[in-house]
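From the shared-data thread, chain only:
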Amino acid sequence: MKMSQKEVKEDKKTPHNTQLYADVPSTCWPIVYSPEYNITFLGLEKLHPFDAGKWGKVINFLKEEKLVTDDTIVEAREATEEDLLVVHTRRYLNKLKNHVLEGCREWSFVVAHITEIPPVLILPNFLVQRKVLRPLRTQTGGTIMAGKLAIERGWAINIGGGFHHCSSDKGGGFCAYADITLAVKFLFERVEGVAKATVVDLDAHQGNGHERDFMDDNKVYIMDVYNRYIYPGDGFAKRAIRQKVELDWGTEDREYLNKVEKFLECSLNEVPPDIIIYNAGTDILDGDPLGGLAISPQGIISRDEIVFKAARTRKIPILMVTSGGYQRRTAKIIADSILNLHSHGLIDKQFVGHEAGTTLSL
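Structure, as tokens:
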């Protein structure tokens, strides 16, 4: 039977079936995590300054303080290839699988470049898929799941994610999948009433991945606060930033927090969004080997409080991802910040429903 033009148009818009938007029991906190987040791979993960087990440490700290239990955490699911194709090109995903063939061995050249761990190059790709990329795909699934939860509950936190250097067709900086872009695209496709998003990127590095993805998309407003002198220095991507705040080496708490509060206020007033995606990198911490800023642990806690307070007082759903942070003590700071948000009443377990009258398409 031949479909009308209207039916063809509607058919093209139908989202694929996904497990990432499955219902979550109201007894769970909108905090997403899986033990699969943590990367352990013959000790090779130690060759990168990133703490590849920090996500589990955050959860353990929250358990010790009795905020969460295994039964009250939302377990993240791995993003499937069909999920990833909502944003990524098939060509890029294929590059992550098999890039260089030599004899009967498949070398993982692209993944070695993205993770900045050269020995990954000489490992069979099936091992890299299992030990490196599967954890990153699970974190990516967690971010997408947290987007739906944020709409339902008013807030959500993915204990992982924040791969802000990855765009639809290119990874880098330990970012293999564009979870921020994916979370936004899933919401736009599946949640009626979500038409505008604001990305608040407060990692020490410029978020060039989502900036490239949303370059010409006026539905997405980007505020980015970063050290102007460090990676990636992507001049083209900077064109997508609506509120750009470039920091100098060694910026400290007072200046940093004043700028965050001031420019966040300006951003939310300029274009009130339907959801905030908050990239809460802790590589701004004093002493971070890659961030180059000098923010104290209390400064990070205060920063997160400023962002959540701005969102919650305006009744804008907020999704937080944890992004970069290259010191062993960052896991405790992230946990302390979440506990601080709870103590100030900025996060709770209450099921608030769809505050903006949104409708979900599963």
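Residues 58 and 234 are 31 Å apart (CA to CA).
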